[in-house]
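Q: Give me the 3D complex with flavin mononucleotide.
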Amino acid sequence: MNNPSLSEILNIKHPIIMAPMFLVTNTKMVKEAMKAGIAGAIPAHNFRTIEGFELALQELEQAKTEGGAWGVNLIVNRSNPLLNEQLLACLRHQPDFVITSLGDPSGIVESCKPEGIKVFCDVIDSKHARKAEEALADALIAVNNQAGGHLGPYSPEELIPTLKSETNLPVISAGGVGDSEGVQRMLNLGACGVSIGSPFIACEESPVSAEYKKAVIDYGSGDIVTTKKLSGVSCTIIKTPYVEKIGTERNLLETLSHSLPFLKKTIKTLTFYRGMSALRKAAFSATYKTVWCAGPSIDYVKAIVPLRDIVVQLTKSAE
Ligand SMILES: Cc1cc2nc3c(=O)[nH]c(=O)nc-3n(C[C@H](O)[C@H](O)[C@H](O)COP(=O)(O)O)c2cc1C
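A: Here is the predicted complex, encoded as structure tokens.
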């Protein structure tokens, strides 16, 4: 069985990816991640234009550091009208890896593999994992039920061994890790590495508002709730007073329109764009409409610190 560590797959010092986070991970963070000896990934959908995306790729290409690696997250379903252009930009600027989410990765693998760009696929169960293996992906990102953002239904204890036994792909665990013991726990379960998001939201280099960072410090795992209101699929958010007021369940009209076949596609797209816009406003401006995305691993965040200190916390006992 193929069992390389993520450090070997990406030629990085520590087997850790700073996960792509919509509106949060920026080029500054990815560059710092590389300097600290881990990989960092940036979501293509952070950029409203291809020109902006291309500039970011150029910056990262030039900043590539020994012992670090950089990647791009592509949304590969129909909600992403820019996918083809984003892919072409990736082929021009050669990230070390691409992470696919929310759809069929085969077209991405076909284009990236010949260029030496690795493709890792976000999966939540063995059905999706087998599809990624059929598409000849390089590794799986096993998104568990403790992950921030779009989470899966299974615990890492269930998910990692299942994916290891049902596929031959290396498994990168995503969700719930915030210290070096957590990293080691995932490696002991059979993961080749770990993808970590929420613990980086409040780092010094992060572009989000002081209010969002303070919430990540002040709130804890008990305050994380899931909602389908934002993107149509379950997404974790902090239960602020505003979220309590609007609720996390879809209202009757939203539920009805999602169940009517002729309206389903339009409503899904509308929900997605409205949700993303709510997140964008809350991430960067002082507004009482605080819809902040984060996962239970914010428990590990105690202060705003430089990104490299978080990497030290994640790797210290290993050294
Ligand atoms: C604020 C936030 C935004 C996210 N945005 C994305 C995204 O754009 N694309 C993606 O594939 N995953 C996204 N995720 C999921 C992360 O890539 C990763 O799977 C998750 O953070 C792992 O769980 P953790 O937060 O406990 O470390 C996001 C997570 C958070 C917390």
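A quick observation: The longest strand covers residues 69-75.
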